[in-house]
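Quick one:
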Amino acid sequence: MKMNKIYRFSKSIHKWSSISISILLIWMGISGILLNHPELIKTISVPKYLIPGNYKIENWNRSTLSDIKFSKRDTNLIVIGGYEGVFISRDRGSTFSRVNRKGLENSQYFNKTKSIYILENTHKDGILAGTFGGLNFYDFKTKIWEKIPLKEYYEKVVKIIDYKNEIAVFTSSNAYLLQKENIRNAKPIALHKNQKEASITLIELFFHLHSGEIWGLPGKIIFDLAGLIMIFLSISGLYLWITPKSIKLKIFKTDIIKENIWKIFRWTHNYHLKLGIYASTILLIMGVTGFFMRPPAIVAIMNGEIAISKIPGLSMPNPWEDRIRNAMYDRVADRMIIDAKDGFWLSDKGLAGKYSRTAPPVPIFAMGATVLEQESNGDYLIGSFAGLYRVLPENGEAIDALTGRNPYNISLIRPGSNLITSQFTTPAGDRYITTHFGGLQPVMKTNHSSKLLSMPKEFKSNYSMSLWNYLFELHNGRIFEFMLGDFYILLIPLASLIFIISLFTGVFDWFYIKIMHLLNRKKRPNL
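Output:
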């Protein structure tokens, strides 16, 4: 009798918890599957009228200016790279126009640009653009883009920098060297980690588990199927809840209609139970990892690591796979510094030396360093959503580059007051930063012109967002900030918690029914 009460309570919890998040689970399933395969939606963009007002582009905000380069040969030439592509000015920044896209991918997502490089004084002058889809070269003479072959067709390029007399290119997984006179031949460079046992951070583990990509394409497909099951469970659950109430309506007055409705009801109920129990383990993984992937729960796994050898089925031949976020060459000490998801890595000599891990000298927000550069005097500039800092490499002393004070009380989970996306100094000596929300802001002005870096008019008139980015904002709940304010950050953790409760109660109910069915069969008298 006691178990029967527990079952009735569990059944009620399962019913109302599932109903409360069913619509959310449908969009999470759809968006999760599509996010797993950006190549399938690479050509689709979301028009301006479907994008919330707080996402509009103004004053080079929202990473529309991720990198900027000033020509050393032509003082009128400025090139900007950002999440809207590559833009060029030939009048010192008074006006900008989009660089011709001929030769580029027909994809707003894969044309998002993280880093650029102006190639001058060679037989092939032009622009190197490091995009989400690879490395591309724009020839100033032909005005056509050309894709530079890398190991993979789609490699997210995160940094292009001068390295001695060559050009170093870092993707999220690999490093390459290019000769300035022969940029079409990208030479892979092995980056050796100085560590006893390869490990993965818990944040990486949870993110890779959530999508199934930890086991490669087969893992993604299995989790895609689980996503489809989650969509079916949400829709069928709503149907099973609504049908007994709607069947009483006058529009269903004929016996044939009622009979067909009950046939669909029985079929739906049968597969709701079967698919739910078959996919319960994977769905539980999705729910638990989803809960820990957003603040405040992410704090609990922030500094955790686990050896790769302890994860069944996981193979990582490349220890840098999808981990590199930024890089810098210290020309004074002749060493490379890499900001990766598993920490700061310093080489003992040059690009191809052995890399040892160290703690970053300043707070870096969880998303990684958006600025990692060396000043002309040898100081480091390191910036992220936690702020912008100047570091003296000889003793590791750091100060806030914007206030001149020592950094304090910096959260690696909650963004700071300045969400730094880039910084630069003009040839005239004017220093600027760009922030995620505020965009372009002067830090130190000498010959500042109000017309400097005028934003292209097309950002206002013809703005769109790649479908992948739109779904990503939808999937992590950020797109609802305009409705929920700062409380949007709790949407996904709360929904994940309710989803976990729904799964546990659903599994308990299934086992209870099965056990009671077996017990009743044993009690029946043999005839």
